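Worked example 3. Consider a protein that binds LLP.
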Amino acid sequence: MNPSSSTAGASSALPGHPFVAYQGAALQVEGVALSALAAEHGTPLFVYSKAAMLAALAAYQRGFAGRHVQICYAMKANSSLGVLQVFAQAGCGFDIVSGGELERVLAAGGQASKVIFSGVGKTRREMRQALQAGIGCFNVESEAELDVLSEVALSMGLRAPVSIRVNPDVDPKTHPYISTGLKGSKFGVAHDRVVKTYQHAAKLPGIQVKGIDCHIGSQITEVAPYLDTVDKMLDFVSDIQAEGVVIDHIDFGGGLGINYHGDKPPAADDLWAQLLAKLDARGFGHKKLMIEPGRSLVGNAGLCLTEVLYLKPGEQKNFCIIDAAMNDLPRPAMYQAFHAIVPLQRDAGPRSESVYDVVGPICESGDWIGRDRTLAVQAGDQLAVLSAGAYCMSMASNYNTRGRAAELLVDGQQVHLIRERESAADQMRHERLVGG
Ligand code: LLP
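Given these inputs, the predicted complex is written out as structure tokens:
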């Protein structure tokens, strides 16, 4: 496919989205006109920029230049095969949280040895599957999980490589649903049990201690919580090593935020310059490092294209009803999240400006995508919901028997269909009528 690109007028990139720009009046990704893609593939439609993903990755690579590091893309942010393939080809490892995610990594050409397996509730089946594949490390979250993993590994004649996720009790200052490193969270091993848990792990015959890890939350926009976390992690490493257990690698998790709406997260390279300076100052700069970024690698590389179906003036609110909904874009309904909404064509003709709640067709009042947005639109116009690369398609559902949207990956002038639109037949494939 080679969609036409508009060349008229000056190009102006959207703030925080260097690969998304208006060329004259037409919104483009990497120079490809989005209205042409919407016309060809229909809406709702996710469009991702490969260059934006690689630029986000490059910021981390710059930050770690000269260090022994493994960047494991936290694929829960966007687990579509075509996206995983970009990161696998760029040499990344993957942070997984299920056996299904492991199958996706392998299907996309990722290496099992660069996979780390996080999560509080791994099943024996998933442990066996991951050991069989030869993953790099299990990020274990409790003593009970350690015992089961040791038993499963021994039954296969193996020793499981393990890192223990500790709970550093640091406030990431983000939405409570995505804060994970505070006391009272289900994640990680509590402070006072960390050394004991390592002593226990070191005695288990099916366990091989490799590292230590943490993850304090997501959409973090400040440096201070990371600096506090580094201090606490290094204290743990000293205490554990003092007990004779060697820690080969330190994994600082993910969590770096993106700019959705005036957010000002540090750039990955600036953040890591500060964190590495702290590691060096405390004499740990030589250690192998791991990180698990998700959102910051893909969030601002993706948009969701949608069409205005109807404008509905109301007594208290005006509604702009679009063909994308909370099943495609669940973040506003779940976290009251803000996603910018912009027109695909800026000079679409005379339209009066009004303030709208932008809502989807789903039968719930929670089905909103944007509230109190000033738009100059009419039915049939196309819009782009920005910052839709992370935690949108991977959290999409079939609620209201809505098929999941199609996905495109733009790579320069090449446009690749990486997911076909899901049909009702696709959704019903595994269902059976009783006696049928
Ligand atoms: N590592 C672990 C163990 C995690 O639990 C997560 C995210 C990450 C890494 C990646 O974090 P990131 O770099 O993407 O912030 N659905 C929510 C976000 C949930 C994050 C869950 N854990 C949202 O849409 O905001």
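Take a moment to read the result before moving on. The CA atoms of residues 324 and 356 lie 15 Å apart. Residues 74, 76-77, 95, 118, 178, 215, 218-219, 253-256, 292-296, 331, 335, 391 surround LLP (CB under 6 Å).
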